[in-house]
Amino acid sequence: MYDISTxxxxxxxxxxxxxxxxxxxxxxxxxxxxxxxxxxxxPLPSIRWTPCSRCGPTAEPPTDTASYSYLLGLYLxxxxxxxxxxxxxxxxxxxxxxxxxxxxxxxxxxxxxxPSGKAYRVQAVGYTSVVGYSRHWPCLLPQHGPGKKHERLIxxxxxxxxxxxxxxxxxxxGLIHSDGCRITNWTTRLIAGERKRYEYPRYFFSNLxxxxxxxxxxxxxxxxxxxxxxxPRNVSIARKASVALMDTHVGPKF
Length: 254
Known about the structure:
By secondary structure, the protein is α+β, with helices and mostly antiparallel strands. Among the domains are: about 1-40, no CATH class; about 160-250, Homing endonucleases (Endonuclease I-creI, Roll), CATH 3.10.28. It has 10 helices and 8 strands. The protein has helices spanning about 5-15, 20-25, 30-35, 65-80, 100-115, 135-140, 160-165, 170-180, 210-225, 240-250, and strands spanning about 80-85, 90-95, 120-125, 125-135, 180-190, 195-205, 230, 235. The protein has a 4-stranded antiparallel beta sheet with strand order 1-2-4-3, with helices on both faces. A hairpin with a 2-residue loop joins β7 and β8 (about 235). The radius of gyration is 21 Å and the shape is globular.
């Protein structure tokens, strides 16, 4: 625990234009803590008991299963869980500042799934971390574990798979919003003796984890989207009918 004077001193150094790394070395405070103080300087409140659907006498899925499916996709792509103070955990989802609508959607999903109903934003260089604090994240997102996701086995629990099966497009949208994109490719064609530029949209999803790639492509199969592997870690969706399906249910980031 750091007192308010330590927190204010660290933030004052950052305000002078110093890097988080240099301020961390001078003050002995972690960069993650300083980054969190940029949004909230006061200490976190004590964690009060809040009901969790997975920790109760009879384990049930989260109430808002659609938001959970979307959040699961975001977490598998750009999320992490780290221990905090007072037996709690931080869930952090990194969202590029270029997509403010995505950040809003992520905030709404975290608030809906977090038993406390709370989420907040932490600004970093070029991106915003959407953060939720709870003691229940490891049971709500059991894919949490030591090391990087692509270096360990990633599988869904049966109750998670049932949610993804019920809300496949939300899961796909979460994965695309984290590690995917919609782009416009172009080529040229010879038409009536004149070479003309031809543009066409396509979706890509990239991830280092073969397990997460498989979860993505299995769900695409479930909804009838045709795909191919551009390489072992990059999924391409280019067929016109499949792109149209993706546009209807996912669309570009915003």
